[in-house]
Design goal:
The protein has a five-stranded mixed beta sheet with strand order 1-2-3-5-4. The chain is of the alpha+beta class. The protein has ten helices and five strands, in the order H-H-H-H-H-H-H-H-E-H-E-E-H-E-E. A hairpin with a 6-residue loop joins strand 4 and strand 5.
Length: 443
């Protein structure tokens, strides 16, 4: 049966509660034992007091009777009063709730001996010494036994008190240990996994979709960890598919550009050049009155050819296609409207879409430096390191470039990121702009 997080928390809270309840129950039972033992000690002490009072009353009876025999005045009244005290102490002793073994029988024997002694004395006879000795013997035995009972009850009370204190201490210590253990358990199975999940979620938010959680949580926490891992796997798969799709779009765009460039260059451009040559050939045979018009048409064809050549160059530079990125960047530098220093360290040709993306990054950066940054000097560098092409364009303009400002940086970033690369822009106000594009070369 699967136990959820709530069940585990309730179980964890129930353990110290159960331990504390058990210790509290033991403590209450011990306190009850203490009270009972103290009550029995008090009763035993009352019995001792009553028995000693009975002993004094019997002695008073004997003393008053001797006075009566000797003719002492008021001896009869003193004897009657002492007899009443004997009866009262006997009744008080009999009314006590004595529960010890043999206590009630000893009380009966003592009161019976006292009554026998009292009846004999009330008949006017001299109490026999044996009756008085019987009373004294039973009284001494009763007092001795009650002292033993009182001592036993005091020991029982002390034992119960010790047991109550011990139960309270053990219950407190066990509760603390249980709380600590439950805290450790909940920390390891709930708190720490949630913290780790939060840390990995922050890595997800930063784009690190390769991060994974080790599933250590229980119940709903474990479900959360597995859900986060599944989400990251799905996002990573979607990102990989998106990257591949964007790369395919860039590659298709490059192929379309190449196709258009070839069609225009090999088709329309060559046709215009051929027409211009035909016009030059016809000019020599044309009448003098038509030569000015022929020259005008020829000039128009040449202008159209130049415009077409510039258009084709914008689609896909011939230098990039034929000679590679290094030659294309140097051509860009020579054609720029401001001084440009180009440093290229490329031993081999790179994939066509990589070269195309790098070329357009530099081209757009030079345009921005001329139109927006009001720069007077630009540095361009390109080199391959660690399996990636790094292109850096740095100008000394006014800075403040922003992707959201519509300067073409968003399009450049999309082109670079579609190839799995990244584009960074550092452009503090008044300190120029540095644009860095890093593009993986393994496409």
């Amino acid at each position: 049966m699967r136990i959820g997080l709530l069940g585990r928390v309730l179980f964890g809270a129930g353990v110290p509660t159960a331990v504390a309840a058990a210790a509290f129950g033991i403590m209450l039972g011990s306190i009850g034992d203490v009270r009972e033992s103290q009550g029995r000690v008090a009763t035993s002490q009352e019995a001792v007091i009553a028995a000693e009072g009975l002993s004094r009353a019997v002695g008073d009876v004997a003393l008053a009777q001797r006075g009566r025999l000797l003719g002492v005045a008021d001896s009869a009244a003193a004897e009657l009063a002492a007899a009443d005290r004997v009866r009262a102490q006997s009744a008080a002793l009999a009314d006590l709730d004595l529960r010890g073994a043999g206590e009630q029988s000893r009380v009966v024997d003592l009161t019976a001996a006292s009554d026998a002694y009292l009846r004999r004395s009330q008949r006017g006879a001299d109490p026999a010494a044996v009756l008085r000795a019987a009373v004294d013997h039973r009284l001494d035995a009763f007092l001795a036994q009650e002292r033993v009972v009182a001592a036993e009850q005091e020991r029982a009370a002390a034992t119960a008190t010790t047991r109550a204190v011990t139960a309270a201490g053990i219950g407190l210590a066990a509760s603390l240990v249980a709380v600590v253990l439950v805290g450790i358990y909940l920390t390891r199975t709930v708190s720490l996994p949630i913290r780790r999940a939060g840390a990995v979620a922050r890595r997800f938010a930063r784009g690190d979709l390769d991060a994974r959680l080790v599933t250590t949580g229980v119940g709903e926490v474990g479900d959360l960890e597995r859900a986060l891992n599944a989400m990251a796997a799905g996002l990573a798969s979607a990102r990989a598919e998106l990257t591949a799709s964007r790369a395919r779009i860039v590659a298709a765009d490059f192929r379309v550009r190449r196709s258009i460039e070839r069609d225009l260059h090999d088709g329309l451009q060559q046709r215009l050049v051929a027409l211009a040559l035909d016009l030059r050939a016809l000019r020599a045979e044309a009448p003098e009155s038509l030569r000015a018009e022929v020259d005008e048409v020829a000039a128009g064809l040449v202008a159209a050819t130049e415009e077409l050549r510039d258009f084709v160059h914008g689609i896909q530079p011939a230098a990039l296609t034929e000679s590679g990125l290094g030659a294309a960047l140097r051509t860009l530098g020579r054609r720029a409207a401001l001084p440009v220093e180009v440093r290229v360290d490329l031993a081999d040709r790179l994939p066509a879409d990589v070269e195309s993306a790098a070329y357009y990054v530099v081209s757009e950066a030079l345009t921005n430096a001329t139109k927006h940054a009001r720069a007077s000097y630009v540095e361009v560098s390109a080199a391959v390191a660690g399996g990636a092409l790094e292109v850096v364009v740095r100008d000394d303009g006014v800075g403040g470039a922003d992707r959201a400002a519509g300067t073409g940086l968003v399009g450049l970033a999309d082109r670079v990121e579609a190839l799995g690369g990244r584009l960074s822009v550092a452009s503090p106000a008044g300190a120029g702009t540095t644009l860095t594009a890093t593009i993986p070369t393994a496409q």
